[in-house]
Each structure stands twice: as C-alpha cells, then as structure tokens.
C-alpha cells in the first residue's frame, strides 16, 4: 500500500478534478502491475495497472489507494474492470466520499466474490486525497500557504528587495511543490511587485499548474510575464463585479480566463474565491502570497497546510511582513497549526504544518 500511495502522488497536480490514485497488483509475492491516475484524470489507476499486468491480474491482489469507482463516466467503473480481470482480493485504505461511489464500489466487489480489506494506511491516504474530499464535500480545494522569509518573518526589505532571501535548494523545493498542486495562486500585489511566472522550472518537462491571480479590480499590468504567457500556460483571474469591462476584455484577449466572485468589505471574499476554484475542478491550490491574500485566508480559517522556508538573516521591523493585518487581539484568536516536518535545505530550513 505504501508503494501504491507513492505511485498515486505522481498524479498530484495533473489529474484534477479526479483524485490522484495509485494501484499495485501483487501475485505470488511479486508485482505484476502498477499504475496511477493519468493526466486529465483518465485512465484511472486501476485501468493502467490492469493493462500493465494483462493475464497475470487473474488471482492477484490489487492494492488501491481509494475505493474503486462504481459509476460509469467517460470510462466504465473500475470495480467492474477489477471483477472482469479476475482479481481475488482488493485492499483499499478508505472509501470514496463521492456520492456516486460511497461504498458502492466495495459492495460490487464483494458481491462478485472478491475479498475486500480496508483501513490499511488510512491516515496517509486521507491526507493524500484531502483535496479531492474537500472539493467533493465542501466545494473548495485544499490550500497550501507557502511563506519564504527571513528569520524575523520578513519577505522583503523596506524597499521591496526580495531576490533572493532563501537559497537555490529552497527555491528548487518550491518548484517541486508547485508541480504537486493543481494551481499556483497569488494576489494582485505580488503579481505587480514581482512580475512572477509562477511556472515549474528546473524539474524537466512537467505538467504546468494553472496560474491564479486573485484581484478584485484586475489591477495587474498587461505588460507582464503572466499576460505574455497566458496562451501557453493557463491564467485564471478571480475578480469582483466592479472590475472594468475594458480591463476584462484586454486580459481575455491575452488568453486569460476570468472568474467573477463575491466581494465582502471591499475585498474578494476568501470563501467565495475558493468555492469558485472548486467549481472549476481544482483540488489543490498552492498560495504564494502576498501578505493581504495570506491574511484573508488565515483569518477565514481556510488554510489547510503551511510550508515555511526560513533563511538565516534578519531584516528588521522596517522589512515587509509575510502576512498582512489579521486583527488578532489575543493568542486564542490566532489559527494554530501542528508541526509535521522540518528539514534543512542548504542554508535554509523548511518547516511544514497542518491545521
């Protein structure tokens, strides 16, 4: 099952709106088939593994990281494929919360005489599929907030200089994290100040995530890298109803997709913003700031994971903070996270926290 989970992670960021599932077929103590959900969500992991195994699938045990689907979509149900292949046993850690499945896949397998075992490495599987479950149940994607800054929590000097606070090892890790998410998101301030590309670089030929700009008024320069490359790598702009029509048309002419969302107290409502992205099928979003967007997501309790990269330098109080004002008066009001990983990356430290 651990091997199947590792295979499933290969599909992260590539197979939305479907879950990133892995599948391993074992027969007589040997691996006879392997697969994971392919880009765009098809074919499913079980279908790939069964094709890999061929006739050897008969009598095998299938280790699948999520309950096999039981509904007919663009392809027949994976539960049916496993039955027709003659597998003897299916091991899956958790059930699928999609109402079209929700235990029906397991039921189909058992009715066909296939032994079903559940609960194996369930906690790891729940984490890997958390974005898919959030989209299915709550209508929003998993949000990872990344902050890279100085020891005293600053992301730039008072003059705005920020390249580079962290070293090349940390920056490479950030690109790897981008690749594992469906989308990379920034606010308008970051888009203006940094003119970022928000693409995955240094990892060879990879599937690029969608690039999302959260900007109520779409006040981002058209003479930017994002606009210049919008036809090559998707750019989605989430905006308010008061964004100027001519600005909307200009960005659309560059190839960007526009998504109108609700505005609350003069800013994009963070819950509505994420719901809009969930409606588009996104399951995992990697937010890279800036401070105002980070603060709004944290204050609304919509951040599921924090990833920090801390460098060994201090910029002082005049430096720019990584998170904007949140209106926190007491410690009990501040959102707290649980530390799950720390790692040295060159001269920097990466630390990862879960809600």
Automatic annotation (TrEMBL):
Record flagged with keyword NADP: yes
Spell out the InterPro entries in the cross-references: APOBEC/CMP_deaminase_Zn-bd (IPR016192), CMP_dCMP_dom (IPR002125), Cytidine_deaminase-like (IPR016193), DHFR-like_dom_sf (IPR024072), Eubact_RibD (IPR004794), RibD_C (IPR011549), RibDG_C (IPR002734), Riboflavin_Biosynth_HTPR (IPR050765)
Q: Write out the transmembrane intervals.
A: none
Occurrences of domain CMP/dCMP-type deaminase (ranges): 1-117
Q: Which GO terms describe its molecular function?
A: 5-amino-6-(5-phosphoribosylamino)uracil reductase activity; diaminohydroxyphosphoribosylaminopyrimidine deaminase activity
Could you tell me which Pfam families the record lists for this protein?
A: dCMP_cyt_deam_1, RibD_C
What cofactor does its activity depend on? Zn(2+)
Question: Which PANTHER family does the protein's record reference?
Answer: 2,5-DIAMINO-6-RIBOSYLAMINO-4(3H)-PYRIMIDINONE 5'-PHOSPHATE REDUCTASE, DIHYDROFOLATE REDUCTASE FAMILY PROTEIN (AFU_ORTHOLOGUE AFUA_8G06820)
Q: Which family is this sequence assigned to?
A: In the C-terminal section; belongs to the HTP reductase family. In the N-terminal section; belongs to the cytidine and deoxycytidylate deaminase family.
Q: What is this protein called?
A: Riboflavin biosynthesis protein RibD
The lineage, from the top, is: Bacteria, Pseudomonadati, Pseudomonadota, Alphaproteobacteria, Rhodobacterales
């Amino acid at each position: 099952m651990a091997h199947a989970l590792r295979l499933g992670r290969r599909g992260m960021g590539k197979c939305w709106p479907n879950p990133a599932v892995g599948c391993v077929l074992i027969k007589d103590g040997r691996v006879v088939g392997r697969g994971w959900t392919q880009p765009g969500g098809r074919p499913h992991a079980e279908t790939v593994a069964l094709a890999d195994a061929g006739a050897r699938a008969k009598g095998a045990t299938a280790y699948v990281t999520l309950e096999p689907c039981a509904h007919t979509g663009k392809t027949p149900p994976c539960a049916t494929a496993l039955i027709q292949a003659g597998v003897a046993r299916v091991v899956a850690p958790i059930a699928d919360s999609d109402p079209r499945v929700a235990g029906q896949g397991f039921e189909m397998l058992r009715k066909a005489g296939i032994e079903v075992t559940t609960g194996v490495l369930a906690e790891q599987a729940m984490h890997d599929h958390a974005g898919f479950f959030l989209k299915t149940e709550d209508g929003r994607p998993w949000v990872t907030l990344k902050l890279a800054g100085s020891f005293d929590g600053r992301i730039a000097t008072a003059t705005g200089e920020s390249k580079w606070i962290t070293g090349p090892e940390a920056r490479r890790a950030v690109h790897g994290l981008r690749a594992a998410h469906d989308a990379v998101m920034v606010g308008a301030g970051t888009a203006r100040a940094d003119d970022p590309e928000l693409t995955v670089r240094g990892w060879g030929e990879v599937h690029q995530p969608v690039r999302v700009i959260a900007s109520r008024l779409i006040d981002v320069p058209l003479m930017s890298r994002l606009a210049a490359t919008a036809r090559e790598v998707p750019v989605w702009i989430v905006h308010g109803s008061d964004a100027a029509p001519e600005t909307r048309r200009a960005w659309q002419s560059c190839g960007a997709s526009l998504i109108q969302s609700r505005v609350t107290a003069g800013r994009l409502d963070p819950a509505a913003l994420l719901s809009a992205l969930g409606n588009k099928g996104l399951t995992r979003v990697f937010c890279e700031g800036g401070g105002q967007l980070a603060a709004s997501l944290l204050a609304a309790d919509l951040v599921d994971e924090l990833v920090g990269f801390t460098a060994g330098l201090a910029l002082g109080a005049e430096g720019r903070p990584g998170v904007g004002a949140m209106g926190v008066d007491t410690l009990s009001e501040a959102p707290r996270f649980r530390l799950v990983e720390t790692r040295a990356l060159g001269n920097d430290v990466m630390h990862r926290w879960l809600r």
